[in-house]
Design a protein that fits this description.
62% of the residues lie in helices and 2% in strands. By secondary structure, it is mainly α. Helix 4 packs antiparallel against helix 5, helix 15 crosses helix 16 and helix 16 packs across helix 21. It has a two-stranded antiparallel sheet. The radius of gyration is 24 Å and the shape is globular.
Length: 571
């Protein structure tokens, strides 16, 4: 999770390509600069309090997730509480507000740091005992989630094993049992999750917000109206193309599993949440990727575009172990060079895409300008780092990329290309609909945590994803989604990141490499790494997310590039 006062980090690639920079102009400092100097001293002292505790917290969190060790979880809670105590300090917060409100701090880096610290401290200006309760409950829920393994006919199954059943078995009864096992963690977590939601709401209301959902958006420089308006536009944009494409997919699924289309249920869609396209197209990417060394492919690809990751690989943890977190993530231990990725790699399409994605986060985290102060050594926003990760993850379903990166033959690339493209397009449409479910569910979860959440969940799934609920099902299936548990009010940023990904990809294709967007796959071209480093990574959090979007692509975030790439696209 420093001479960059004016960030002229690049007139470089984009300027040479004919794109005009839209970087925000920097204000001139006051003549005596005394307030700037005083503010700099204050923020440096504050940083020195935060930096070592944050590093220890991150190390404990890494150990907890790679080993499941109770002592590591306990240390993580301890350090998280220490961090919260720093951010909850009312005297420090008062000083931040004083500098911020004075209008006498004129250095643009300092003013941005003050904004970042202001939002970080604001969310913690509540009773320390309440913060401690939230940390304790959140860690307990995460620990239970990580330790859970589904049970099918008396056999304990890992997340990867459940996914394999849902992907490959044609036994409808077994598929149903595997899907139900994937949701079995929900009842285990439900009581803790409801309590955690109420604690989060309590903290938000003490700070004057309606609920935690509204507060989280505000602290991340977003508004509820801004996000809802964007998602309503996406709903109108994607509903018919999604349903049209899904009708074809449903026919293929029904044929595969020997059922009528009307009898399709969630376990027929292969992914436990139908957040990605089922493998029904006439291109077996798993068969191709079974022969691929996923990690070596990613290493060579990123090195080839000028973003080497050998150091990240050395520090990371990529394969299954008991009690280890069964999913994947990237983390920056020290906001510096210690960037790590957790994975559970298998040689298949899911894990090739996932590793391209997570290692995409890692090159972003490694790319911050060396002169940035500690507070700004993060991505501009969740959506910008998710966007970069998604942009790279999409490559796993591109025949031109597979041809260039893993040596697929011309004949094979031509044979699978059209179907792989249909899969990618449907995958993006599926994901946009899934994000609608998450957005609207979380909004209502924090508005009414004691409501009928089981019914709400399936109402949204049926409305946005077109998936029928199992007859008579009344279970907290939503609690099986880790983001709802441990990364609240986060998921909408994935979709906004998808828009950012398309906008950055269009800029790379048109203005950096001068290639057709569909055929542009970056392989072996370091101009891609230079552009991304200069225009996206190096600024860190010096700009807000929409300012960075304008700086990187020449315009604010819109659905236009995503629509052109996936909604309006044809074969």
């Amino acid at each position: 999770m420093r001479a960059l006062t004016q960030i002229a980090i690049v007139t470089g690639i984009l300027a040479g390509a004919g794109c005009q920079s839209t970087a925000p102009s920097a204000s001139s400092p006051s003549k005596d600069g005394s307030m700037n100097t005083t503010c700099r001293t204050f923020l440096d002292k504050l940083t020195e309090k935060i930096r070592p505790v944050e590093r220890q917290s991150n190390l404990a969190w890494w150990e907890a997730n790679t080993t499941g060790d109770d002592a590591a979880f306990a240390r993580q809670v301890e350090f998280a509480n220490q961090l919260d105590a720093i951010y909850a300090d009312p005297t420090a917060f008062s000083e931040i507000k004083r500098f911020r409100d004075s209008k006498q701090v004129t250095d643009p880096t300092l003013t941005r740091e003050l904004d970042v610290f202001y939002f970080a401290f604001l969310g913690k200006q509540v009773d320390p005992s309440l913060l401690a309760k939230m940390n304790e409950r959140s860690t307990e829920v995460e620990k239970k989630f990580n330790a859970y393994r589904g049970n099918v006919d008396g056999k304990e199954m890992s997340d990867n094993e459940i996914r394999e059943v849902l992907k490959s078995s044609t036994d409808n009864d077994l598929r149903r049992k595997a899907w139900e096992a994937s949701k079995g963690v929900g009842p285990v977590l439900l009581a803790d999750l409801r309590e955690l939601v109420k604690l989060r709401n309590e903290s938000a209301r003490k700070l004057g917000f309606e609920n935690f959902y509204v507060m989280s958006l505000a602290l991340n420089e977003q508004s509820e109206k801004q996000v809802l308006d964007l998602f309503d536009d996406l709903d109108r944009l994607t509903r018919k193309p999604f349903l049209d494409a899904k009708a074809e997919v449903d026919q293929r699924l029904a044929k595969r599993y020997g059922v009528d289309v009307a009898d399709l249920r969630p376990w027929h869609y292969q992914d436990p949440f139908f957040q990605e396209s089922p493998k029904v197209y006439d291109c077996d990417l798993d068969a191709i990727d079974a022969k691929v060394d996923v990690l070596a492919t990613c290493r060579d690809f990123y090195a080839g575009i000028g973003l080497p990751i050998a150091d990240v690989i050395q520090r990371s943890d990529f394969y299954e172990k008991p009690k280890k977190n069964p999913h994947a993530f990237c983390t920056n231990i020290d906001r510096g060079s210690d960037v790590r990725v957790l994975g559970n790699i298998k040689p298949n399409d899911y894990w090739l895409e996932t590793m391209l994605h997570e290692l995409g986060h890692s090159v972003y985290e490694k790319g911050f300008g060396s002169s940035l102060p500690f507070a700004l050594r993060t991505p501009s926003h969740t959506l910008t780092t998710e966007g970069i990760a998604m942009m790279f993850g999409r490559l796993s379903k591109s025949a031109p990329w597979m041809h260039a990166a893993i040596g697929m033959s011309d004949a094979d690339a031509q044979a699978i290309g059209p179907e792989a493209w249909k899969m990618l397009r449907f995958n993006e449409l599926v994901f946009s609909r899934w994000c609608q479910v998450m957005l609207h569910f979380e909004r209502e979860l924090y508005r009414n945590p004691d409501g009928d959440l089981n019914k709400l969940w399936w109402d949204l799934v049926e409305s946005y994803q077109g998936v029928k609920r199992p007859e008579g099902r009344d279970a907290p299936d939503f609690a099986a989604k880790i983001h709802i548990v441990s990364a609240p009010v986060y998921y909408h940023n994935y979709m906004m990141g998808a828009l950012f990904a398309s906008q950055v990809h269009r800029t790379i294709a048109r203005d950096v490499l001068h290639q057709d967007e569909r055929a542009c796959v970056y392989v072996g071209d370091p101009r891609v790494g230079r552009y991304l480093t200069d225009r996206v990574f190096a600024p860190g959090n010096l700009y807000s997310w929409n300012e960075l979007t304008k700086y990187a692509t020449g315009q604010p975030l819109t659905p236009d590039a995503f629509a052109a790439q996936f909604v309006q696209a044809s074969n």
